Amino acid sequence: MGVTQQIRGVCPVLAVPFSSVGDVDYESFRSLVQFNARNDVESVMMFGVASENAKLTDAEREKLLTILIEEKRKSSLIVIATVADHSLELAKIKARRFEEIGADFINILPPTFLSPTREQILEHIRGILESVSIPVIIQHLPQAGGMEDV
């Protein structure tokens, strides 16, 4: 499969707004997506560090991505969904689910827990690549504990 979309310009990692009691504020999130679409942002990323990924349940992630895809259909936004699981099996499940929901790209944040070897990181990346049919981005973030030369 060839890549038919190009990512250009600014690609913000969307923040997830929370209420004063700690619940995800889905309507504020929808407004944030609409704001980006109205202001000519071409692509957005979800579930990066700024998205408070570690605080979200799988159900919250799915609902947020579903809202993002609903809004994408009203604009030309390109949606990039980040998979940051350290377990390869969980990462593959999540990547496939994000593809099913409608993400255009998967962004892989390679595992860092327990200092994996270069080969273990590459095995993780290959496993995710083989599990989806959409394009994949590999995020290079060695300052988070990853390797410099992967």
Write up this protein.
By secondary structure, this protein is of the alpha/beta class. The chain has one domain: Aldolase class I (TIM Barrel), CATH 3.20.20. Helix content is about 35%, strand content about 10%. It contains four helices and four strands. It has a four-stranded parallel sheet, with helices on one face. α3 (about 90-100) packs parallel to α4. The radius of gyration is 15 Å and the shape is globular.
Question: Helix/strand-derived class?
Answer: alpha/beta
Mean pLDDT: 90
Distance between the termini: 24 Å
**Percent strand:** 5-15%
By DSSP, the count of extended strands is: 4
Q: Going across the major beta sheet, what is the strand order?
A: 1-2-3-4
What's the Cα radius of gyration?
15 Å
How is the main sheet built?
Answer: 4 strands, parallel
pLDDT < 50 runs, ≥5 residues: none
CATH class designation: Alpha Beta
Please give a quick description of this structure:
Strands 1-2-3-4 form a four-stranded parallel beta sheet, covered by helices on one side. The chain has helices spanning 26-38, 58-72, 88-101, 118-131, and strands at 43-46, 78-83, 105-108, 136-138. The protein has four helices and four strands.
